[in-house]
């Protein structure tokens, strides 16, 4: 072969020749790059989709009353001319001011014009003295007059007709028309044609004739929900006392042109403009700009410009900023956990890509050494290798990116392109850079670099020590600061890399320790009589040092998979425990007073019910007959102890709670109490007054943190046989079973008791898209980590396949049987596989134990309920053992398959193949 010189004509192009010679290698690289680019591009878009959906869900759950931006302006000053005051309330002026308000809504905040509104209403409800209106406590109802725009577009006419104005309405107009909603009409007994008389101010009462009954088209929309009184009347107490009399408070809907008539009443009419936010297109990553736009409209420059154009006394209010702050706090607490999964899987992918390039360089080491020895320049050789990999990697990366954009059409495209581009660039550069580092100088023959003989270089030692320091700092930071984060922060990347760094450090430690057991086993195997064992260990000892990269990939992948599985297991356990605390069993049937007779027997007949435990819970029991109350549950000790043990919630021996029949009247009842109650009242006997007025003396003998019958942190549980009959009427049924139907339980219990099913309570904890998105990401991270572990193992085994095939062919010519060949390949592959499996299991366990104090899963598991409980990591045996066992089984299967395939071929052919390898 002639040396490379400028001007030499290449007969066969390098890239085309290499692709034809090794099409399988090129196809494998293309698949690896395409899949990795797809995962890298999908990850940020999935996160964006979950965060955007979470933002929309948070705003929807807050309701229009909290999220609508409401602007209010008082009526013009009393000293102003009457015509000026009336013109300020007319529809034309309000419409122009409404346009000014909408013009000040800045992106990314947008106004939902279909639900935004404006109008005039009385700030002070007016008592309507008409005798035919309902008076719950002999107080006349009070009504609010409201003239809101576009009533016809937001309501359906049920009876009568919509109100209208005749002529020009002024403050002295004697009569106007109005409409009421169906709910107002039903509760206040108003019909189309009814006439109400609203008291006037220094004038005769304003006559309001109801001409129509309307039903809101969307009662949850901002048009109606921003002021719920417009469509739903309410009973209001006349004072703060619980015994204060009540009266009805409702609304009369006037046409916009009738608003000036409110000036003739004492209702103090005010103008208002309601801006309903439209966040269907607002991305969560623009949350800072969104909050800035809300602040500008509520109290910033936007409000100042509106005041200049409308009224200097105009004011604005909304809870939308608080809703956005709450959402941002939830997102900030979940983001570090998401970063742990994303960065962990990304690190594994990087290691596998580097490993693929390193194995390719090692496989072609002799070829590249020969080219360098014959005069190939290092830049020219590196450029040709770069072109060779780029021809395969660039289309594969583009295909992976296109698949990601198609699979997840929502999200930021720039992040996806950058992630896929980084993967493609790494795939292109891995082989050329590795080859350039190995072949800096031209040499034809190189010494063996066996794993048991080569000493690590100083540069490698410095790099490993640097990683060790980073890992120690990340673990310590995570244990101290945790992943809860502060609102507005996005998590620290070093903290998020802590699990991966733990795996990397463990892998480097095991790589350094790897030669020691091999040397000891090789010496011990030398005393064996057979040749297969010593030969297999000798082969494992002569593994090239480049095999440390597959081991690093395996250990990192197994550690990340174990950590991710522990996260999902911790989330499941936290939700199970929270749901159990809420229900006390698989289902809970509870009445406000007492359950109907025979309810327990009927509930036992419901399909799926296995056992029913009754309890009489008194919420108003008073220890020492004092002002403080403690919930007291009267139960049957045997059945209740069996239930507590079955659900693992405060289990106790039944004999410790059972009351002595001989001493029921004289001795105090044994009681099970919560730690707070036990600390407050001690272990000495003390009296308790029950809700029926009777007294019982109890003594706390058992202390448990939780109990099935009572939710909360304070409770007493006693034997029902020691209480009077009136105090043991069942109020609660604790049901165990599977596939329980709440409707069937409610029908069986009779009446309208409250029914809680554990499965539904558990499902309610995971309704936020932020939670479900993070859970799906962790599940995908576990699957991807396991997949990359298998891929790393397969790449290492495939790289060694030609050499092992040639070895078996040579040994078969010396009399090696097929069974011995199979055992040889399996024993040769097992040391590294066993090291990776055992190291991965131990490292995953250690990572969970080390990082558990700093990771609180309560936000991810229970954020829907705003719980303050903590939920830490817990070791998941399946995530620790199953990937490790899969590595061992795959290693044995590949070795056995290779031995079987080699045995079916001729020795001469395999020897030639081995020489080519």
Label this structure with key terms:
917 residues; alpha+beta; 4 domains; eight-stranded mixed sheet; six-stranded mixed barrel; 30 helices; 21 strands; flat
Describe this structure in words.
It is a single chain. By secondary structure, this protein is of the alpha+beta class. It folds into 4 domains: 1-68 and 318-444, no CATH class; 70-84 and 107-283, no CATH class; 447-570 and 767-917, no CATH class; 592-752, no CATH class. Helices cover 52% and strands 14% of the residues. The chain has 30 helices and 21 strands. The strands form 3 sheets. Strands 1, 2, 3, 4, 9, 10, 11 and 12 form an 8-stranded mixed beta sheet that branches. The protein has a 6-stranded mixed barrel with strand order 14-15-19-16-18-17. Strand 14 (609-623) and strand 15 (630-635) form a beta hairpin. The longest helix is centred in the C-terminal third of the chain and has 45 residues, at 769-813. The chain is flat, with a radius of gyration of 39 Å.
DSSP strand content:
5-15%
Kindly state the mean pLDDT as a whole number? Answer: 78
Overall spatial form: flat
The low-confidence parts are: 485-491, 913-917
Main β-sheet description:
8 strands, mixed
Task: Give a short overview.
It is built from 30 helices and 21 strands.
């Amino acid at each position: 072969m002639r040396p490379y010189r400028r001007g030499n004509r290449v007969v066969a192009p390098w890239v085309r020749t290499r692709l034809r010679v090794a099409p399988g290698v090129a196809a494998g690289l293309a698949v690896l790059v395409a899949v990795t680019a797809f995962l890298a591009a999908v990850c940020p878009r999935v996160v964006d989709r979950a965060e955007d959906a979470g933002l929309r869900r948070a705003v929807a759950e807050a309701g229009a009353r909290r999220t609508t931006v409401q602007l209010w302006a008082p009526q013009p000053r009393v000293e102003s001319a009457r015509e000026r005051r009336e013109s300020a309330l007319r529809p034309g002026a309000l419409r122009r001011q409404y346009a000014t308000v909408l013009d000040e809504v800045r992106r990314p905040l947008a106004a939902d014009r279909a639900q935004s509104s404006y109008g005039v209403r009385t700030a002070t409800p007016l008592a309507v003295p008409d005798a035919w209106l309902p008076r719950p406590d002999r107080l006349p109802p009070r009504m609010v007059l409201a003239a809101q725009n576009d009533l016809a577009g937001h309501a359906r006419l049920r009876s009568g007709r919509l109100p209208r104005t005749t002529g020009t309405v002024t403050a002295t107009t004697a009569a106007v028309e109005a409409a009421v909603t169906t709910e107002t009409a039903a509760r206040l007994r108003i019909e189309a044609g009814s006439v109400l008389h609203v008291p006037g101010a220094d004038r005769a009462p304003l006559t309001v004739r109801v001409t129509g009954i309307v039903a809101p088209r969307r009662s949850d929309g901002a048009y109606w929900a921003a002021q719920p009184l417009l469509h739903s009347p309410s009973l209001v107490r006349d004072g703060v006392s619980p015994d204060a009399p009540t009266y009805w408070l409702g609304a009369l809907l006037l046409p916009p042109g009738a608003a000036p008539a409110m000036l003739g009443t004492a209702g103090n009419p005010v103008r208002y403009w309601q801006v309903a936010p439209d966040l269907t297109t607002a991305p969560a990553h623009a949350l800072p700009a969104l909050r800035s736009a809300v602040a500008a409209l509520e109290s910033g420059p936007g409000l100042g410009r509106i005041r200049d154009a409308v009224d200097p006394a105009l004011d604005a209010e909304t809870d939308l900023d608080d809703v956005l702050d709450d959402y941002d706090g939830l997102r900030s607490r979940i983001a570090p956990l998401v970063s742990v999964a994303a960065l962990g899987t990304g690190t594994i992918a990087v290691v596998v890509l580097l490993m693929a390039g390193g194995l390719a360089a090692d496989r072609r080491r002799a070829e590249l050494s020969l080219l360098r020895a014959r005069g190939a320049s290092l830049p020219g050789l590196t450029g040709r290798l770069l072109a060779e990999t780029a021809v395969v990697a660039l289309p594969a990366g583009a295909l992976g990116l296109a698949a990601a954009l198609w699979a997840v059409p929502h999200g930021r495209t720039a992040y996806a392109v950058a992630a896929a581009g980084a993967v493609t660039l790494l795939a292109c550069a891995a082989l050329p850079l590795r080859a350039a580092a190995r072949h800096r100088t031209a040499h034809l023959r190189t010494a063996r670099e066996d794993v048991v003989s080569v000493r690590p270089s100083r540069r490698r030692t410095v790099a490993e020590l640097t990683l060790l320091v980073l890992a120690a700092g990340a673990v310590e930071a995570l244990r101290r600061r945790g992943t809860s984060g502060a609102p507005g922060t996005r998590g620290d990347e070093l903290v998020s890399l802590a699990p991966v760094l733990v795996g990397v450090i463990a892998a480097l430690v095991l790589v350094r320790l790897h030669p020691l057991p091999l040397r000891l086993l090789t010496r011990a195997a030398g005393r064996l009589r057979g040749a297969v064992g010593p030969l297999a260990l000798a082969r494992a000892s002569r593994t090239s040092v480049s095999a440390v990269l597959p081991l690093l990939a395996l250990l990192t992948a197994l550690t990340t998979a174990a950590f991710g599985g522990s996260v999902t297991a911790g989330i499941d356990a936290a939700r199970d425990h929270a749901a159990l605390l809420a229900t006390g069993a698989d289902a809970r049937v509870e009445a406000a007073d007492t359950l109907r007779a025979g309810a327990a027997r009927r509930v036992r007949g419901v399909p799926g019910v296995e056992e029913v435990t009754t309890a009489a819970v008194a919420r108003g029991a008073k220890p020492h007959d004092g002002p403080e109350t403690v919930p007291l549950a009267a139960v049957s000790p045997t059945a209740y102890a069996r239930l507590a043990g079955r659900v693992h919630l405060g289990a106790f021996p039944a004999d410790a709670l059972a009351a002595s029949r001989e001493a029921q009247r004289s001795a105090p009842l044994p009681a099970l109490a919560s730690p707070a109650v036990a600390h407050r009242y001690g272990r000495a006997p003390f009296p308790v007054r029950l809700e029926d007025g009777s007294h019982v003396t109890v003594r706390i003998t058992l202390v448990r943190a939780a109990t099935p019958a009572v939710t909360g942190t304070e409770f007493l549980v006693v034997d029902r046989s020691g209480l009077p009959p009136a105090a043991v009427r069942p109020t609660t049924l604790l049901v165990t079973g599977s596939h329980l139907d709440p409707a069937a339980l409610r029908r069986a219990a009779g009446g309208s008791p409250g029914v809680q099913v554990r499965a539904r309570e558990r499902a309610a904890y995971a309704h936020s898209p932020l939670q479900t998105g993070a859970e799906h990401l962790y599940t995908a991270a576990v699957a991807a980590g396991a997949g990359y572990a298998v891929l790393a193992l397969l790449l290492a085994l495939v790289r060694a396949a030609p050499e092992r095939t040639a070895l078996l062919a040579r040994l078969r010519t010396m009399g090696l049987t097929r069974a011995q060949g199979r055992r040889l390949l399996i024993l040769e592959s097992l040391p590294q596989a066993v090291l990776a499996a055992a190291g991965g299991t131990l490292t995953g366990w250690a990572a969970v134990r080390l990082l558990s104090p700093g990771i609180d899963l309560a936000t991810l598991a229970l954020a829907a309920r705003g719980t303050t409980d903590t939920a830490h990591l817990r070791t998941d045996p399946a995530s620790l053992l199953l990937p490790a066992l899969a590595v061992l089984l795959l290693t044995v299967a590949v070795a056995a398959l290779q031995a079987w395939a080699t045995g079916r071929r001729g020795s001469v052919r395999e020897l030639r193949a081995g020489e080519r390898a």
